[in-house]
Design goal:
30% helix, 10 helices, 3-stranded antiparallel beta sheet, 8-stranded mixed beta sheet
Length: 290
């Protein structure tokens, strides 16, 4: 039996957002972002990549092999089209977080998860993806994963995934498995102490049974029926958690490249590992601004 369609909103109340996010793992917010702001971010990113595109390949490769781990990480991430907000903001005078501050989403999350302060995640970045031969400043599609296996399991984090153009039809989109946060942790056999590391495990991967996100195992457990493949117009935002299984949605007919920004908001005081965490709902009401 297929999962119900992913719930979509053009405006929502804090308790609705909280309930849907924890129950389904994701919430589609149609028309939530200002298209003109997205266009300006896109222009500034194009300008950024044009500037760094002037660097000779030999110099670029040398920088990627730097002895300084921070410098090495910057150039390695840049090669894949990843530009973090801490780099983009000084360059452009714009922050990726302006997208969710200007439309009321930041305040919505603050009311929805009142038990925790909000912090801007240092992992907020942009990604450029293409299906063709991989040029400089582009990345390849990703299979199913959870962000917590990379960035940490100690807190709840919300990714406001925002493409800078329409995607999901002619350009690669994103796919998610519609499953609640606690249910996902149970399915992946989350163990805060960690399982015996499997071959290839790094970061926080050993805290999950990552093989259970491969397609054959998902199918055997009936979870492919819960996969959602939303299409996006410019201005649409998909909010999902760091414990939501997701990956790149791509098929051969998606021949156009895609640029998206991953605006992550951390909730360090939310009791993500407490069984009762999903029970409390916020007081008050605030509509998402259109």
């Amino acid at each position: 039996m297929s999962a119900p369609l992913l719930r979509e909103y053009r405006s929502t109340l804090p308790h609705e957002f909280r309930k849907a996010l924890l129950r389904d793992g994701a919430v589609m917010l149609r028309g939530a972002a200002d298209p003109e702001l997205l266009d300006e971010i896109h222009r500034q990113l194009d300008r950024f990549f044009a500037e760094y595109g002037k660097i000779q390949s030999s110099d670029f490769e040398r920088n990627m092999a730097s002895d300084d781990p921070n410098e090495r990480d910057f150039w390695q991430q840049l090669k894949l089209g990843h530009v973090y907000d801490r780099t983009f903001k000084p360059f452009s005078g714009i922050s990726y977080f302006d997208v969710i501050r200007s439309n009321g989403l930041w305040d919505l999350v603050a009311r929805a998860f009142h038990e925790s302060p909000l912090t801007e995640s240092a992992t907020t970045n942009c990604r450029r993806m293409t299906m063709d031969d991989l040029p400089r400043f582009y990345d390849r599609p990703l299979e199913f994963h959870v962000d917590a296996q990379i960035f940490g399991v100690h807190q709840l984090s919300i990714n406001f995934w925002t493409p800078l153009m329409a995607c999901g039809v002619h350009a690669p989109g994103v796919k998610i498995i519609q499953l609640g946060v606690q249910e996902t942790k149970e399915y992946l056999e989350f163990n805060e102490a960690g399982h015996e590391p499997a071959e290839g495990d790094q970061w926080h991967m050993s805290k999950f049974r990552c093989h259970k996100m491969t397609l054959p195992v998902l199918q055997a457990n009936g979870l492919l029926e819960r996969v959602q493949l939303p299409s996006f117009d410019k201005g649409d935002i998909l909010a999902f958690t760091n414990f939501t299984m997701h990956g790149s949605h791509f098929v051969p007919s998606m021949t156009e490249p895609r640029t998206s920004i991953e605006i992550r908001v951390d909730l360090p005081a939310f009791p993500i590992h407490a069984p009762q965490a999903k029970a409390a709902e916020p007081a008050g009401a605030a509509m998402l601004a259109n």
